[in-house]
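Q: Structure for this?
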Amino acid sequence: VAHQGRVTNGTFDVLKTDVVDAARRLLGSVLVADVDGNRLCLRIVETEGYDQSDAASHSYRGKTPRTEVMFGPAGYLYVYFTYGMHYCCNVVVGEEGQGAAVLLRAAEPLDVIDALSVRRGGRSGIELTNGPAKLCQALGITKVMNGHNLLEPPLQLQVLPQLPQEQIVQTTRIGIREAKDVPWRFHIKDNPYVSR
DNA sequence: TGCCTGATGTTCT
DNA sequence: GAACATCAGGCAC
C-alpha cells in the first residue's frame, strides 16, 4: 500500500460500475491523507451507496448547484454540509452524468498521528473516525474539498482488490428517512471502527 | 446501555 | 418554514 511512499493510481475506471458494486469495492481500499504535514493512511471500513434511482439520494431530483459534482466523473470527492455543523464526504462512482456516489461512513487509521486526535478535540481510538462527520473532521475535509480529484494530494484514494465476500456485511442505510429498506450499506465484519 | 435533545445553516417545499 | 446521508452530552434504567 501507499505507506510513506508514492500512490500509484492510474485511473478510477474500476469505479465506473453500479453503485452497489462500487460501494463493495471501496471497502478495504485506502485513503492517503496529508494532515498537518504528515502522510497518513486509513482503510475504509464502512460505505453506503446512493444513486439517482434512489429517493434517499441527493441526486434523486436531478442536478443542482449542490449536487453537480455527483453527476461528474468517477473518482472525485462530493462533500456536503448537513445538520448545520457537519460535513460528510462521498466518492463519485459510475459513468459521468449518472449521479451516483458512495458515502464514506468510517475508516480505520493505519498510522498513529496526533494531528487526528487534535482535530477531533482530544478524542482517541475508534472515536476518531467511526462516523461520516467524524471522519471528515479528523481529516479536515470541508466544502473547499468538494470536487477534489482523488488522484491528487492532499487526499488520495487507492482502490485495492475486493475483499472476500465473507468479510463484507450488507445492511440497510443509517440516518435516512426515505428508502430505509434499500440495503446499500456495507461494512467490514467485526471491525471496531464501524459505526453502531 | 439506550433514549432524548440541542446545536446550527443550507436546501428544498 | 421544515427537513436534514450527524454528533455529543445528559439522564434514566
